[in-house]
Specification:
Blueprint lengths: L10 H10 L4 H19 L2 E3 L2 H12 L13 E5 L26 H8 L3 E6 L31 H7 L5 E6 L5 H7 L2 E4 L20 E6 L2 H11 L13 E4 L12 H15 L6 E4 L8 H19 L9 H16 L4 H18 L3 E5 L16 H11 L4 H6 L3 E8 L2 E9 L4 H14 L3 H5 L6
Parallel strand pairs: 2-3, 2-4, 7-8, 7-9
Antiparallel strand pairs: 1-3, 4-6, 5-6, 5-10, 9-11, 10-11
Length: 456
């Protein structure tokens, strides 16, 4: 029997092979390193990457006496540039930050290594994670599904979609795990507050908006990573949602939904409704307040300013759009800091709406429009960038403000994966991933949908 392509396996399949000795962690790492060497010059997902260190780490996994019990035994994982990995610099996507290597692993990375994962390197993010598309003049990643497109600004999603890593971490303050997952045909989860630690042990990030979550090719793999990050295994053997609210309305005004994105949400609802035990689906729109966009933006701007202060960022050396956000955020902090009551009021309002309708899950599009052309926003100013983000990506930030868990999963429309978003009640992370897994079984495996066409 021919040996399998180790870069085409799921995390669960790699764990099984490494645990029972059919493959070694070094074999898996070498296969992914070869993939990086061949394709990352075009994709540009990795900011920092050291094959010698990767192989040494994989060898350490193979020599562990507890290898048979490791939940991520030998699984290659990509870590974003805002999470510390010892020996690599943490640049936060910015040339204005120090290039000194981190002296120790972040708690998130410690959990990955303890579980047997192999860190493949640091992947690119937009500067300070301000935008969900490439803004920096330095190298930026491209979308492996189509190299002419942006991957939502995320090297993490690009690395997983191009099979250069199996799993990735992502920090999400307005969609940085979910938008790239939607654009790259992947599963991306934003957990609720305090489910997964934030980088550097922070109690909160971006005035309460921030969360850390997994990006993966399947819901099962996302659940595997979530269980490690949260130090609490996730069981996907759950019943599907009983009642789903399907909404095609975006939380704030946006460009009209692209027909494929509308079709993906409607198709996902039909698939979750079909078959024994299927959900009851009702068209229903959440009671979005008119001030929702402004409430999120104030926290976003103030949060970016806090990051700049914590990093002692030289704003004059930062990207022009980043510097503008920092200046606006500093004014907000000085004159009218965001108050928690607005976010709490929105959370209470949407949960009361879910209670009144008996809804378990809100289902809708993950983005309003397809990905931007790669490099389309380079050199654009703050206003142009903000309008582009607001019109194209209005579906995700509301759930950071509410602090509710949300998952994005792909649905095939023709030959193109289009992301849909499922939002749940507090503590519903496992149920949302179980619903995403039902979509996979009723459509096609996400791994197939996410296989990069340019490398077929």
């Amino acid at each position: 029997m021919d040996a399998p392509d180790l870069t085409g396996l799921t995390a669960a399949e790699i764990v099984s092979r490494v645990r029972d000795g059919r493959s070694s962690a070094v074999d898996v790492a070498r296969a992914h390193l070869a993939r990086i060497a061949e394709h990352d010059p075009e994709v540009g997902a990795f900011a920092e990457h050291d094959p010698t260190r990767v192989l040494a780490e994989a060898g350490g996994v193979d020599s562990r006496p507890d290898r048979f019990a490791l939940p991520l035994a030998g699984v290659p994982v990509a870590v974003p540039d805002d999470v510390d990995v010892a020996g690599y610099p943490t640049r936060h996507g910015s040339a204005a930050t120090p290039a000194d290597p981190a002296r120790r692993d972040d708690e998130l990375v410690k959990r990955l290594r303890a579980a047997g994962a192999v860190v493949m390197g640091k992947v690119r993010i937009p500067e300070l994670s301000v935008w969900a598309f490439a803004q920096a003049t330095q190298a930026s990643p491209r979308n492996p599904l189509d190299l002419s497109l942006d991957p939502g600004g995320s090297g993490a999603a690009a690395a997983v979609a191009a099979r250069m890593a199996v799993l990735a971490l992502a920090t999400d303050g307005g969609g940085a795990a979910r938008v790239p997952a939607a654009y790259c045909g992947l599963v991306g989860l934003k957990p609720g507050p305090h489910v997964v630690p934030l980088p550097r042990g922070a109690d909160e990030h971006w005035c309460g908006l921030g969360a850390t979550g997994p990006i993966a090719r399947t819901a099962e793999d996302a659940a595997l990573l979530l269980g490690v990050l949260a130090a609490d295994p996730v069981d996907l053997d759950l019943p599907g949602p009983r009642r789903i609210a399907l909404s095609l309305r975006t939380p704030w005004p946006a460009r009209a939904l692209h027909p494929d994105h509308r079709a993906a949400a409607i198709g996902a609802a039909a698939r979750l409704r079909a078959g024994p035990g299927g959900a009851l689906v009702t068209f229903a729109d959440p009671p979005y307040p008119r001030t929702l966009a402004r409430q999120w933006m104030r926290r976003w701007q103030a949060g970016v300013a806090q990051d700049a202060e914590a990093l002692d960022l030289d704003v004059t050396a930062a990207e022009r759009c980043t510097a503008t956000v920092v200046r606006k955020g500093r004014r907000i902090q000085r004159f009218a800091p965001p108050r928690p009551d607005a976010a709490t009021a929105w959370r209470d309002r949407v949960l009361a709406w879910m209670d009144d309708g008996g809804y378990d899950v809100l289902l809708g599009p993950a983005t309003a429009q397809p990905p931007l052309r790669a490099g389309a926003m380079l050199g654009h100013g703050y206003t142009s960038s903000l309008l582009t983000a607001a019109r194209r990506l209005p579906c995700t930030p509301a759930w950071n403000l509410a602090g509710l868990p949300a998952v994005v999963a792909p649905v095939l429309i023709g030959d193109r994966p289009v992301g849909v978003q499922l939002v749940g009640r507090p503590g519903a992370e496992a149920a949302l991933l179980a619903a995403a897994a039902r979509l996979e079984r009723r459509v096609v495996p996400v791994a197939s949908a996410a296989a990069p066409r340019v490398y077929a």
